[in-house]
Amino acid sequence: MSDPTVGSLRVSGANLHYEVRGQGPVLLLIPGGTGGAASFDGVADDLAAAYTVVTYDPRGMARSTLDDPEAAQHVAEHADDAFRMLELVSPGEPARVFGASSGAIAALHLLTARPERLTRVVVHEPPVVEVLPDAAEHRALLARVRETFHAEGLMPAMAVFAAGLAKGGDTVEPKAEPEVPPRAAARAEQTMAGLPYFVGRIVPAFMSYAPDIRRLKESADRLVLAGGQDSPGELPHRATAALAERLGTELRSFPGGHIGLTTHPREFGEALLKALRI
After folding, report:
1. What keywords sit in the KW lines (predicted)?
2. Residue 261 region, left (φ>0) first, then alpha (ψ -120 to 50), else beta?
3. C-alpha radius of gyration, the chain, whole number
4. Which of 16, 55, 130, 151 could pair with 37 in a Cys bridge, judged by C-beta atoms 3.0 to 4.6 Å apart?
């Protein structure tokens, strides 16, 4: 597969690094966590056999710089960035979108804000904890993460955050750490570099987001909700399952756990291709 076309898109308050590969209908991939466009390295080429695949680093991550490095972050602004990316590569034409984790939250908001621009939206484990009956407990978790981050630093805050994600409502048997492909392991430095921004500003903004259930129901025929087959009981999976129940839609099972995109790229890509079919 040939190298992607690389560019930079100016949006309000930021410059977004993006990459385009393949041909066919447009498929925009919105990353979660700190991986940026590189988090799709394991699936982008295979998807590009059927689609014009657009990947990018969200504002403040990796190669996408903020005008004000201390600026507060908002889901609606990140969703608008995704819309601007679609307008760049596919002006006025409906497109498909996939979002993972925090990127899945941006994709959900994009669907409620610009439904006319989207033919299919697939989201994998958006941690929309506000839809859960125990949402107050998770607001308290976010407060503990924020307090720990400011008082003790990054790694103690990450430990609090990881424990909160893992315990969920169900009992989850301890699992061995999944093996990560070498290419993904090589991104560890970028992942670590982005953690302070992610924990300090993305997590509080995104995990306090309450999706518009009414508007999502209006577009439910275009929305696919997916959870990892290895992650039931973990907080992002619980939230996604609760959202599926609220919308009266199926929760599809994708290979691996919350980071199945990284640990099972080939199988994850195959599941995504099936989910994208209209």
Report:
1. Hydrolase
2. alpha
3. 17
4. 55
Three-class DSSP category at 66? strand
- DSSP sequence for 137-153: HHHHHHHHHHHHHHHH-
Give 52-98 pLDDT, tens digit per residue.
999 999 999 999 999 999 999 999 999 999 999 999 999 989 999 99
- Mark out the alpha helices in 154-225 (DSSP H runs): 154-167, 182-185, 188-197, 203-207, 213-218
How far is 129 from 241, CA to CA, in rounded Å?
11
Q: Mind listing the pLDDT tens digit for each residue in 152-174?
A: 999 999 999 999 998 544 333 43
Cβ–Cβ < 8 Å for 30, 124: no
Taking each helix axis as running N to C, give the angle between helix 102-113 and helix 75-89, from 0 to 180 degrees, rounded to the nearest 10: 70
Structural domains of the chain ordered from first start: 5-276 (3.40.50.1820)
For 81, 156, 162, 202, 244, the CA distances from 199, given in Å and listed in that order, are 20, 11, 11, 6, 26
Q: Which parts of the chain sit beneath pLDDT 50? A: 168-177
Give the relative orientation of helices 135-152 and 154-167 as an angle to the nearest 10 degrees: 160
Closest Cα to residue 105, out of 14, 15, 214, 204? 204
pTM for the predicted model, two decimal places: 0.92
Cα–Cα distances in angstroms (integers) from residue 79 to residues 15, 58, 215, in the given order: 15, 10, 15
* Interatomic CA distance for residues 195 and 145, integer angstroms: 13
Minimal CA–CA distance to 55: which of 73, 31, 83? 31
Six-digit token pair at 109? 């908001």
C-alpha span between 100 and 277 (Å, rounded): 18
